[in-house]
Write a structure and sequence with these properties.
The structure is a single chain. By secondary structure, the protein is mainly α. It contains ten helices and no strands. Helix 2 packs across helix 3, helix 2 packs across helix 4 and helix 3 packs across helix 7. The longest helix is centred in the N-terminal third of the chain and has 24 residues. It is globular, with a radius of gyration of 17 Å.
Length: 209
């Protein structure tokens, strides 16, 4: 995804050969997931493309954050917001594509993750993406699980609150101050942070049952 206008996201021709991220493989999927895919009547290659399109929705979410004037303050919340926007769009307009995304997120939580705290994500942001891409992906999947938890209760209204409380011209906030704000908007953020730090994030209730 380009960092400035014009916003451009370049997609791979085929996600099957991607190794930087733990793309879902049919051979690693449990029988319940394979059954759901068969019931949906789609191929596993389609599931992988849906997972890849979810990444695209996330990247477009980054450009929307800039366009609506939100200052996420810290990298981890910026990544969470991009996923929230992407998920909200898919949920509203392409719910049939969410199965591939949910399988992707679930499989990604098994990726190696020697670093787990939000503080590590913030201080090692560039290093994680370049030297520890699997660990970087694990962080993104933990954000996705929190996205689902918040979206189920607040939907698109959460983004309205974020736009109000995190204006582009707002004062600089620390990671702890961001968490304090979020906790008032939707209780559970600090408990989620503690689970992340322990590496104990699991798929949100109801995901890929």
């Amino acid at each position: 995804m380009s960092d400035s206008k014009p916003w451009v996201f370049v997609m791979p021709l085929d996600w099957h050969e991607v190794t930087a991220l733990p793309m879902p493989q049919e051979s690693n999927a449990d029988s319940a997931i394979q059954q759901r895919v068969r019931e949906r009547g789609v191929s596993w290659r389609t599931i992988q493309f849906q997972a890849g399109d979810g990444i695209g929705a996330h990247e477009v979410g980054h450009s929307i954050i800039n366009q609506v004037g939100i200052n996420a303050q810290v990298n981890w919340f910026n990544e969470f917001l991009a996923s929230y926007i992407g998920y909200a769009y898919l949920k509203e307009h392409h719910p049939d594509q969410l199965l591939g995304n949910e399988i992707f997120w679930k499989s990604g939580l098994a990726a190696p993750h020697p670093f787990t705290s939000l503080r590590d994500f913030e201080s090692r942001y560039a290093e994680l993406s370049s030297r520890y891409p699997q660990n970087y992906g694990w962080y993104e999947f933990t954000f996705e699980e929190r996205v689902i938890e918040v979206y189920r209760e607040q939907g698109i209204g959460f983004l309205t609150k974020v736009r109000r409380d995190f204006p582009g011209d707002g004062p600089k906030l620390s990671g702890d101050q961001v968490l304090d704000k979020l906790e008032t908007m939707h209780p559970g953020w600090k408990a989620w942070t503690r689970r992340v730090e322990k590496g104990e994030v699991s798929p949100a209730d109801g995901i890929v049952e």
